[in-house]
Automatic annotation (TrEMBL):
GO molecular function, one term: peptidyl-prolyl cis-trans isomerase activity
Keywords (A to Z) from UniProt: Isomerase, Rotamase
Protein name stated in the entry: Peptidyl-prolyl cis-trans isomerase
Coiled coil: none
Pfam families per the UniProt record, alphabetical: FKBP_C
Organism (species): Prescottella soli
Protein EC: 5.2.1.8
InterPro entries: PPIase_dom_sf (IPR046357), PPIase_FKBP_dom (IPR001179)
Length: 126
C-alpha cells in the first residue's frame, strides 16, 4: 500500500483592521520547544503570506505542499529580524512594513510599498 503524505493546510490569516503598523510586529501563535533560530542560520519553514490591505495570498509554501530552507541573511529584513529567537515547532505571525519587506512603492518589486503578513512554522534550523 502506498503511503500518501498530505501537506498541512495553510493557516487562516484574518483580515487586518485599522492602519498598517509602521514597525515590525512579531506575535508568537505557538511557542516551539526545539532549537532556537539564530541570526544568520539556515531555517526550514512553512509560510503563508498575504497583503495587509487586501488579505490576498501572494505566496505560500503550504499551498505548494513543500517547506523551504533559506539562509536567513538572504531573506527580507523583516524575516531576518522576526525569525531569530523562534524555536523549532513554533508558529509566528510577522506583520512586515514595506521598509522591512520589498521597499517603498516604485522600488521595482510587485510587492514594493505593501505591508505583508506572514504565518511561519519553523520546522528546523542549523
Amino acid at each position: 500500500m502506498l503511503d500518501v503524505v498530505v501537506p498541512p493546510a495553510p493557516p487562516v490569516i484574518e483580515p487586518a483592521e485599522g492602519p498598517a503598523p509602521a514597525e515590525l510586529v512579531i506575535e508568537d501563535i505557538t511557542v516551539g520547544d526545539g532549537p532556537e533560530a539564530q541570526p544568520g542560520s539556515v531555517v526550514d519553514v512553512h509560510y503563508h503570506g498575504v497583503e495587509y490591505d487586501t488579505n490576498q495570498v501572494f505566496d505560500s509554501s503550504f499551498l505548494r505542499g513543500d517547506s523551504v530552507a533559506f539562509p536567513l541573511d538572504r531573506l527580507i529584513p523583516g524575516w531576518q529580524e522576526g525569525i531569530p529567537g523562534m524555536k523549532v515547532g513554533g508558529r509566528r505571525k510577522l506583520t512586515v512594513p514595506p521598509e522591512l519587506a520589498y521597499g517603498p512603492a516604485g522600488a521595482g518589486h510587485q510587492l514594493s510599498g505593501k505591508t505583508l503578513v506572514f504565518i511561519i512554522d519553523l520546522l528546523g534550523t542549523k
